[in-house]
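Subject: RNA polymerase II subunit B1 CTD phosphatase RPAP2 homolog

B.,
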Amino acid sequence: MATPTPKSILKKTPVPSTIRSDVVAINPGPRATTGTKPTPSEARAIALSHAHALQIRKALELSILMSLEELVDFPTPAPASSETSMTHHDTPALKLHLRYFQPSDYDSLIHERNILKLCGYPLCSEPKKSKATSNHVLIDKGLSTMRFVPRAKLERFCSDLCARRGLWLRVQLNDEPSWLRGDVLEGVEVGEKGEVIGLDLEGVKWKANGGEETMVLLEEVERRKEMGIRSAVKEGDLKKLVQELEGLGIESKGILDGNKKPEVARNGVGFVVDGKEVPTKQEPLTFTIEEKEVLGSAVAPSADGLAAGMSALAIEGYKPRKGPEDYIPKSKKPQ
Ligand SMILES: [Zn+2]
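Prediction pasted inline below.
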């Protein structure tokens, strides 16, 4: 890192137990099958496989950390001979660095950039938002969804546009730690001295296998849309993004909607579910509101009516007794 950094809070990826269960699953030792003590050679094999898995994990964590350090200083200065390119000149490098990231690593990146007062989106060089004075900000004021959101969460990006772009990258990241991913571990070995061999740290294999296509930037999607090309984006990722944005009170309508119509209802017919218009068969209903015709005039209740029927004394249809004489059965009353 070239710039002087304030106190760093780089986190280690918190996945403590997964590696163990995974290794045991790959190498089900005698413990798992027979319940007896493993022989010394079996115990050694188990210990070695644990150690190897840890070595691979350490190598990948270091790679993630180095990528994180690089991305904190993104975007890099534009090359001198820069022609107006379709995408940002750092796009390929960004995708390369993010290939081993989990969402939590990306959060750390945003946090690190925010410490440097930079917008959380790695391709933006603007300073991050900082307007609010309190720790929590009230959003959706006056609506049923009105709530407080932590200020730090709202101010991670310089603008709503960068929030959309930045969070779109995040939802595309793999939740699975890189050291458990099958494609990453393919052909990887640990040598006699604990050196990890065959890890694609330069991203050569990744590039050859079309790795750049597995992640698509929002800008790329928008540009392709302008050219009439639809991008293959996962519905699940889209839902996650909309959820994230709604949590921040940021407008998400129209994002990546392609040819879909996000407007609610057209001519009052049909409604929108997940950005798709669901047509209704019926024509819109027509209502006429008419006032009821008044035939008589209102009459106030009179005291005579009350005495006659005693209906006013009845409680839910039952007339309470007045005195002790009412409790003597009529047949036993003195004549
Ligand atoms: Zn920005």
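Residues 246 and 274 are 14 Å apart (CA to CA).

T.
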